[in-house]
UniProtKB/TrEMBL annotation:
<dbReference type="GO" id="GO:0004181">
    <property type="term" value="F:metallocarboxypeptidase activity"/>
</dbReference>
<feature type="binding site">
    <location>
        <position position="267"/>
    </location>
    <ligand>
        <name>Zn(2+)</name>
    </ligand>
</feature>
<keyword id="KW-0645">Protease</keyword>
<dbReference type="InterPro" id="IPR001333">
    <property type="entry name" value="Peptidase_M32_Taq"/>
</dbReference>
<dbReference type="Pfam" id="PF02074">
    <property type="entry name" value="Peptidase_M32"/>
</dbReference>
<keyword id="KW-0862">Zinc</keyword>
<keyword id="KW-0479">Metal-binding</keyword>
<feature type="binding site">
    <location>
        <position position="293"/>
    </location>
    <ligand>
        <name>Zn(2+)</name>
    </ligand>
</feature>
<keyword id="KW-0482">Metalloprotease</keyword>
<protein>
    <recommendedName>
        <fullName>Metal-dependent carboxypeptidase</fullName>
        <ecNumber>3.4.17.19</ecNumber>
    </recommendedName>
</protein>
<dbReference type="GO" id="GO:0046872">
    <property type="term" value="F:metal ion binding"/>
</dbReference>
<keyword id="KW-0378">Hydrolase</keyword>
<feature type="active site" description="Proton donor/acceptor">
    <location>
        <position position="264"/>
    </location>
</feature>
<comment type="similarity">
    <text>Belongs to the peptidase M32 family.</text>
</comment>
<comment type="function">
    <text>Broad specificity carboxypetidase that releases amino acids sequentially from the C-terminus, including neutral, aromatic, polar and basic residues.</text>
</comment>
<dbReference type="GO" id="GO:0006508">
    <property type="term" value="P:proteolysis"/>
</dbReference>
<keyword id="KW-0121">Carboxypeptidase</keyword>
């Protein structure tokens, strides 16, 4: 076997192990009985240690050196070597005992978070979260020493390869300066119109699920390779060719679950569209989380809050729930789905206020990783930030700093990719609609194949063939440009170009 074929076979086995981890993680979040938490934590820790050991196998360095000298390899194989080297470099920075300790701490913290969130009990979560944070700092420092980065940028690099907080700071400071004034302008514009009435529930969960499944099918989700379930926090997970999504239901408001389904379906379409020829290789993986979040936000925000989508969806909503009257008219539905209203919950936020939720979390997690703020002060700092950025103060920590699973789940460095993803989504959707003018009219008929086909060819099927900026430039003609996102917001919510 050649050095490249040795590497390919080895990372194929790592992918098989990762698939097992993915299914176990999905089960943990959806169906595992609480009493199995300790046993599951031990199993997950062992699998993480085994995967780490395989990824840091000493022979990988020799294989890489020999394969990189092979002049016969093609474009995809060379990109695969680049991704393998990136993973190997990062993983060899971590000792196995740190990987095991982090996995166990995350498992314990995630389980305690579910109870703490339900009871608005930050104090009960604090010791668990403190242990996760301590280990994340250690991981960030270890990776940073290997990569020549600060601890936060080393963690960010796991989710956004090549991403740097210096660039994010500039983008987010610009948005933080733009959004408050723009939000006030939009709220003033809304106040000049009668508010669309809300439909009155309750909305049976069975019917909400049926509507979600119908929308997933319209978008092109492959049910032969995935499923829809319920979890405390919506997510997309599972394994290669087994892409599972979840949502959560509220019988008083069906829009929350529906938008959660649409968002996670965007993620799932990306996963289901990855290049099959290299599916078990690093080069097939999605190109970072800003692009992944761009695909979910492109579906949820760009496509499924468009007038065209609402024209298609409003009659299905009426049919599903037996709705009648002014609240169910297409114009009323459109106005509700584009209503701007500062609120407490990130996943329920409108397009205009959503970035403020992310900017807050980004600033807080940077401070916490740098040990510039005691973890015990997180609730107060969170509430202060919400008041400053959004003009609202959560009444309790369930609606405040306990609402997201990311920090208990070890996802430090993830949050900025949401707003980077929103900017990227606007840019990709604009490029897609210019390239395929039939996209929006087709959405109005419930036909998403022109949009998904363009995304398949230009984003999904590329995997990690290109670096993020190169892929975005190839697809849209330029690297990330925040002005596109601002222009989109002005058109949709401010009535100007």
């Amino acid at each position: 076997m050649t050095a490249y074929s040795e590497l390919s076979a080895h990372f194929g086995r790592i992918a098989a192990l990762s698939n097992a981890v993915g299914i176990l993680q999905w089960d943990t979040e959806t169906t595992m009985p609480k009493g199995a938490a300790g046993t599951r934590a031990d199993s997950m820790a062992l699998l993480h240690v085994l995967r780490h050991g395989m990824t840091t196998e000493p022979r990988i360095g020799d294989w890489l050196a020999d394969a990189e000298a092979d002049g016969e390899l093609g474009e995809w194989e060379r990109a695969n070597l680049r991704e393998i080297r990136r993973l190997w470099t990062v993983e060899t920075a971590l000792p196995a005992d740190l990987v095991e300790a982090s996995s166990k701490a995350v498992s314990a913290c995630e389980m305690r978070w579910r109870q703490a969130r339900a009871e608005a009990d930050f104090a009960g979560l604090l010791p668990y979260l403190a242990e996760v944070l301590n280990l994340q700092r250690q991981i960030g420092r270890a990776k940073g020493e290997k990569l020549g980065l600060g601890a936060y940028d080393a963690l960010l690099n796991d989710y956004e390869p090549g991403g740097r907080s210096e660039r994010i700071d500039a983008l987010f400071d610009d948005l933080a300066a733009f959004l408050p004034g723009f939000t006030q302008d939009v709220l003033a514009l809304q106040a000049q119109r009668p508010q669309a009435p809300d439909p009155q529930g309750p909305f049976a969960i069975e019917k909400q699920r049926a509507l979600g499944l119908r929308m997933m099918a319209a978008l092109g989700y492959d049910f032969e390779r995935g499923r829809l379930d319920i979890s405390t926090h919506p997510f997309c997970g599972g394994a290669d060719n087994d892409v599972r999504i979840t949502t959560r239901y509220d019988e008083s408001d069906f829009a929350k679950a529906l938008m959660g389904v649409l968002h996670e379906t965007g993620h799932a379409l990306y996963e289901q569209g990855r290049p099959q020829a290299y599916l078990n290789q690093p080069v097939s993986q999605a190109r970072g989380m800003s692009l992944h979040e761009s695909q979910s936000l492109l579906v949820e925000m760009q496509a499924c809050r468009s007038r065209e989508f609402i024209t298609f969806a409003a009659p299905l909503m009426r049919e599903t729930f037996g709705g009648a009257g002014p609240a169910w008219e297409t114009e009323a539905v459109w106005r509700r789905y584009t209503r701007v209203e500062p609120g407490f919950i990130r996943v329920d936020a409108d397009e205009v206020t959503y970035p403020a939720h992310v900017i807050l979390r980004y600033r807080l997690e940077k401070a916490l990783i740098a040990d510039a703020m005691p973890l015990s002060e997180l609730p107060a700092a969170w509430n202060e930030g919400m008041a400053s950025l959004l003009g609202v103060t959560p009444p309790d920590d369930r609606l405040g700093c306990l609402q997201d699973v990311h920090w208990p789940g070890g996802g430090w460095g993830y949050f900025p990719t949401y707003t980077l993803g929103a900017m990227t989504a606007a840019q990709i959707f604009e490029a897609a609609c210019k390239a395929e003018p039939e996209i929006l009219p087709s959405i109005g008929r419930g036909e998403f194949s022109p949009l998904v086909g363009w995304l398949r060819a230009n984003i999904h099927a590329k995997g990690s063939l290109l670096e993020t900026d190169a892929l975005l430039t190839q697809a849209t003609g330029r690297p990330l440009d925040a002005s596109v996102f601002k222009a989109h917001l002005r058109r949709r919510y401010g009535g100007v170009g």
